[in-house]
Design goal:
CATH architecture of the largest domain: 3-Layer(aba) Sandwich
Number of domains: 2
Oligomer: single chain
Order of helices and strands: EHEHEHEHEHEEHEHHHHHH
Strand content: 5-15%
Number of strands: 8
Radius of gyration: 21 Å
CATH topology of the largest domain: Rossmann fold
Distance between the termini: 31 Å
Largest sheet: 8 strands, mixed
Amino acid sequence: MDTIAIFGVGLIGGSFALAVRKAGFEGRIVGVGRGVSSGDTIRAALALKVIDEALPAQEAAEQADLLYLAQPIHRIIDSLAELDAWVKPEALITDAGSTKQAIVDRASRVISRAQFLGGHPMAGRERRGVEAAEAHLFQGRPYVLAPRSASELETPAAREFLGWIPRIGSFPVILSPEDHDRTVAFTSHLPQLAATALAATLDGRPEPQTGVYGPALVDSTRLALSSFEIWGDILDTNRIQIGVALDRYIAELEALRQALDGGAMRYHFEAAAHLAAEVRDRT
């Protein structure tokens, strides 16, 4: 692998570029932007030495051995067909989208000249943009790969990409696109919506304005800082599974409401503490 093209040099794309460089990649890293705002992003990425050069999408796709799509989900979906006309047959196209079914389905229909392998690094920050990119962003975090079949992981390009995952500090997890979307609906999308709901409930109320709160409120609303520009696509492409997760969460809130009067609150606290401890042991 001599040339990596990053489509969408923001937090994730920029961090991937920094991570592979730190891990020993000695080839070219090319940045690709799109639209008016992307010009500033590309200039910042060049100034910060996140990428070596910037190229238009077609030139980058024609030269790249790895095409890393780190744009918003709908932009990834929209760009796949045009990439297929440009990409080298031996290249690998992968993405970093937070949902997989819609992207993999689209790729299976329009990518024929090269291989597509869906991916999702389970890492992020509330801050966006290439200025927030970090080489260690993926350290200790799972990196999900979502092939349509196990054989997709056995090609030379896929094996080479798979080899870079531990080198950037992550560890691979193999899930089908369907299993990925169901899982992250509970482990990623539901926590985001829970934080959003809490912050929206308190917004405009007088109580937070008094300053009478501790770290619990700060910690619990951290994810509410996340941008809807990113989350809009996630919610749109995984709304069925997110709906299932929300139904379970709402049922738990109803059970807590009833437990206030019925004395069964200890059970909920103990179950919650068990999960919280388990998550921290795994992290």
